[in-house]
Write a structure and sequence with these properties.
The chain is of the alpha+beta class. 26% of the residues lie in helices and 38% in strands. The chain has helices spanning 18-29, 51-63; strands spanning 2-12, 32-37, 43-50, 69-77, 88-89. A five-stranded mixed sheet has the order 4-1-3-2-5, with helices on one face. The longest helix is centred in the middle third of the chain and has 13 residues, at 51-63. The chain is globular and about 30 Å long.
């Protein structure tokens, strides 16, 4: 079963290699989607893939890379419309 989720991760998640970390993990799991920095200091990830793979991606988001400090994760179901099939870094929303 394919699942599409959107997560917003808060805490110390920018400037610590989080995007590269989650790109590697998502590609390892074979899920598509993107990650980007948010202007408020958070990190947004939208991904689509098999339920078990998505569960592992969500677990990775909760852990983060060694220098990160995850304080919270907002998770919600999303629509897979327009998501890339290969997980990528998307331009942040910091500049509009």
């Amino acid at each position: 079963m394919t699942v599409t989720r959107r997560w917003v991760v808060t805490g110390r998640v920018q400037g610590v290699g989080f995007r590269a970390f989650i790109v590697a993990r998502a590609r390892q799991e074979g899920v598509g989607g993107f990650v980007r920095n948010l202007a408020d200091g958070g990190l947004e990830t939208v991904a689509t893939g098999g339920a078990e793979a998505m569960s592992r991606v969500e677990q990775a988001l909760g852990e983060g890379p060694p220098l990160a400090r995850v304080e919270g994760i907002l998770a919600e179901n999303a629509e897979p419309v327009g998501l890339p099939s290969i997980f990528t870094v998307r331009r942040s929303d910091m500049w509009g």
